[in-house]
What does this fold into?
Amino acid sequence: MKVGVLALQGAVREHIWALSRCGAEAVPVRVQEEIEQVDALVLPGGESTTVGKHLVRLGLDTYLRRRIDQGMPAFGTCTGLILLAKEIAGSDQPRIGVMDISVCRNSFGRQIDSCETDIEISALAPISAATGDAENRPFPAVFIRAPHISKVGPGVEVLAEFEGRIVLARQGCCLAAAFHPEITDDDRIHRYFLETVCAGHS
It folds into this structure.
């Protein structure tokens, strides 16, 4: 499995390290020619309006929409979640728009309100068991100016909530997290993406 990490903004290096620890070949990608060489894509954090404009400037918004619609697995964290959403509350900013979800930006406050909290994710139980954690301990979710998912369509599976707000969801070959799993030492969500989401669309 060769996974590209969109290297326009965000914790690109941290995603690459996490994917590599899970056994994937992970590479930074910036242009269509590089993305054509990968089997799956990670969309890191950053500033969603800026990244969306870069996607349009590079002609990647239409290309990525087509690739994902054709089954290329995609994993978006924070800004990546926003870019995957079909609807962004109060904004017509550029996005890929492949997940049937509505999102609210910055719903957990400003940078100073960033926090780490444990959340329960039952979907990680098989991953936890495979790594020797039969109890499926909570996941240490790091929220930094994080969005949340306010509404989901019928094909979307809600995987986790925090303070009554949806923060992790899956639809087909797409996985979206409001938080930043890449900046923790816990690789279970990256493993879930590779072993469950990608494996189902290989």
The CA atoms of residues 79 and 118 lie 21 Å apart.
